[in-house]
Design goal:
The complex is a heterotrimer of chains A (89), B (121) and C (158).
Chain A: H1 3-23, H2 35-42, H3 44-47, H4 53-61, H5 63-83
Chain B: H1 5-23, H2 27-47, H3 78-108
Helix pairs in contact in B: 1-2, 2-3
Chain C: H1 6-28, H2 37-55, H3 57-63, H4 66-90, H5 125-150, H6 153-157
The chains are: A mainly alpha (89), B mainly alpha (121), C mainly alpha (158).
Chain lengths: 89, 121, 158
């Protein structure tokens, strides 16, 4: 085995052991801090007039992140169309 | 230890994806490994916000036996909204990577990582 | 890619309207049920990609120009930002929800608790859902069409 394969195996083993030790310490089913989500669930129907909490968060409480995501979609489509461009003579 | 199974599955998915990125020679297999890592991270985001015995955070035609304890019987909605954005970003990056691979194959004739090294003219 | 047989083309003609109607239903009811702009756009775009697979990419590329799909996508993005700027004019801040309490359409506030579903309830949300849905459909259709056409040039040269 070459040097690169040995170094990659050692680093991968150390990383996976570290991840497994962290995953055994988390608690599944009881989140620790829930103040923001409790405020959003109790005030969705009064302030926004929507029945769904997830769509309100995507478009109203955090609409700026959706603007960034639309920009990423636009950049990806324009990049793909630019790679396969044919210049007609 | 049995009750933490979703977190163990997340660690297994990241391990499989990293193994495919580090040890494989074909370019398409490396891209598949990157996509598996992104799926593992999305699963981790969703399982962080789970409450015991909770329902979907939507008020339309909900079951009537959770009416007195409203914020305590619904799953957290903020991680689900952030996962939506992450999935769309993964799709955009995958489309750009695959079109670059098609362009490389037209220029070099092979897809082996060890042979695509110098700027060929 | 070349065309597929006559059975495949006939069946894809029959199932195409049902897929498009289901995708538009998921986009339009984004403020009442799970769904929204991005999810419904992905469902409707997969119906359009089924037509590319059945009829061959060379035939579809000569019928539908890519510049028109680009114009559709830009229209969707401009609609999304235009609705946000109208919030800046009527209220005080960017992304203001100016159609909820006082407005012309979509201005009914539902009662608190578990209710049924009424369509004209949310403020600006259905307009934003339609804009993002059009953007996602045009973007995914253009990406798959250009990539499928570029990979079939080698077959025609040799």
């Amino acid at each position: 085995m070459s040097t690169r394969n040995i170094v990659a195996t050692v680093m991968l083993t150390v990383l996976v052991v570290f991840f497994v030790l962290t995953a055994l310490m988390l608690s599944f089913g009881t989140p620790i801090k829930t103040q923001m989500d409790d405020y959003i669930i109790t005030h969705t129907q009064n302030e926004t007039g929507t029945n769904s909490a997830v769509t309100t968060i995507v478009f109203d409480y955090r609409g700026f992140d959706t603007l960034g995501e639309a920009t990423i979609l636009f950049a990806a489509v324009s990049g793909v169309l630019m790679i396969f461009r044919r210049i007609k003579k | 230890m049995i009750f933490n199974i979703p977190f163990i599955i997340v660690v297994a998915m990241i391990f499989i994806g990293l193994y495919a990125v580090l040890f494989k020679r074909n370019l398409v297999k490396i891209v598949i490994g990157i996509s598996i890592i992104e799926s593992g991270v999305n699963l981790f985001l969703i399982t962080l916000g789970y409450r015991e015995g909770g329902v979907v955070p939507i008020f339309t035609n909900a079951p009537p036996d959770v009416v007195e304890n409203v914020p305590g019987s619904m799953v957290l909605p903020v991680p689900q909204a952030l996962t939506l954005t992450s999935i769309v970003i993964g799709v955009a990056v995958l489309a750009l990577m695959l079109s670059l691979i098609m362009h490389i194959y037209k220029h070099y004739g092979t897809l082996d990582v060890r042979k695509i090294r110098r700027l060929k003219e | 890619m070349s065309q597929m047989s006559k059975i495949v083309r006939t069946l894809s003609n029959i199932t195409f309207p049902f897929i498009m109607i289901f995708g538009l239903y998921v986009i339009a009811h984004g403020h009442l049920t799970p769904g929204g702009g991005f999810q419904g756009g992905a469902v409707a775009a997969s119906g359009c990609v089924m037509l590319i697979v059945a009829y061959g990419s060379t035939w579809v590329f000569e019928k539908i120009k890519v510049s028109k799909l680009s114009a559709f996508e830009s229209l969707g993005a401009l609609g999304f930002i235009g609705v946000a700027f109208f919030g800046l004019i009527f209220g005080g801040y960017f992304f203001n929800n100016f159609l909820v309490k006082t407005g012309i359409l979509f201005n009914v506030v539902p009662e608190t608790g578990f209710t049924g579903s009424e369509f004209n309830t949310a403020g600006v949300l259905p307009l934003m859902n339609f804009a993002v849905g059009v953007k996602v459909i045009a973007g995914i259709f253009a990406i798959v069409l250009v990539m499928a056409y570029a990979s079939s040039i080698k077959e025609r040269k040799q």
